[in-house]
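Anyone up for a design puzzle?
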């Protein structure tokens, strides 16, 4: 994607990026670190309900659907 569409006009990425960079920071959204991320992750609750095999099965289905949609779009748009 070469740009952002705004009011049916394409705007280049560079001006959008410059506008974002020039926006003042909001001090209320900035917090100093309060400890070690590694320690916090080690202390995180165990996700015992997570089923890796089921997740992998669902992810495989998502990837297959995405691949099929991409192929269908390629054919419809004359790319294959």
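Challenge accepted. My sequence:
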């Amino acid at each position: 994607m070469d740009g952002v569409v705004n009011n049916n006009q394409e705007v280049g990425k560079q001006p959008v990026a410059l506008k974002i960079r020039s926006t003042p920071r909001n001090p209320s959204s900035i917090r100093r670190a309060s400890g070690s991320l590694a320690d916090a992750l080690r202390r995180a609750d165990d996700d015992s309900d997570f089923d890796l095999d089921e997740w992998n099965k669902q992810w495989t289905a998502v990837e297959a659907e995405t691949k099929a949609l991409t192929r269908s779009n390629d054919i419809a748009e004359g790319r294959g």
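A detail worth pointing out: The radius of gyration is 22 Å.
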